[in-house]
Amino acid sequence: MGTPCHFALFDLQPGFNLDLDLLATRYRELARSVHPDRFADAPEGEQRVALERSASLNDAYQTLKSAPKRARYLLALKGEVPLEVTVQDPEFLMQQMQWREELEDLQDEADLAGVAVFKRRLKVAQGELNQSFAACWDDVAQRDQAERLMRRMQFLDKLSYEVRQLEERLDD
């Protein structure tokens, strides 16, 4: 028996648009039921199973609550997602370079207000990507486009993380 689908674990239909509050609520309920502390007095085998279930539940939750990871997971359910060696997305490569330069300038100028504006623009771009992905991930004919969008989402997720780090450094 393989591992259950992440969505089934939380009693959700596979899909990109998820109710994240509902996901979090179900995660907390399930996490309590498999928490290793509840099995402290159980035989070693049961403890090990509880630990494994707790770890796989946590992994499923981390995957589903993150838009890029959820996108990759949905695509993986429908077939292998190739690890991209070369990016066949010249338009987005140019956009990435612009964003990187902008972020470097904001860092050099220690422009906290500028970082906040940049962060809002990123959030809008992420929202648009999420909508585009939601519209095409389930369509076999648009598989390449869905994979391209998923990679863009991964990049923006990484960039958002770097923006938050810069914000913290400038805020100190």
From TrEMBL:
A Pfam family cross-referenced in the UniProt record is DnaJ
What start-end ranges are recorded for coiled-coil regions in this protein?
none
Per its UniProt record, what NCBIfam families does this chain match? hscB (TIGR00714), PRK00294.1 (NF001420)
Q: Which gene encodes it?
A: hscB
State the family it belongs to.
Answer: Belongs to the HscB family.
Organism this protein belongs to: Pseudomonas lutea
Where are the bilayer-spanning segments? Answer: none
Give the UniProt keywords, A-Z. Chaperone
What does the UniProt function comment say about this protein? Co-chaperone involved in the maturation of iron-sulfur cluster-containing proteins. Seems to help targeting proteins to be folded toward HscA.
InterPro entries with a match to the protein in the record: DnaJ_domain, HscB, HscB_C_sf, HscB_oligo_C, J_dom_sf
What the entry lists under HAMAP family is as follows: HscB
- PROSITE patterns this protein is in? DNAJ_2
The protein's assembly and partners: Interacts with HscA and stimulates its ATPase activity.
Protein name according to UniProt = Co-chaperone protein HscB homolog
Residues in J domain copies: 5-77
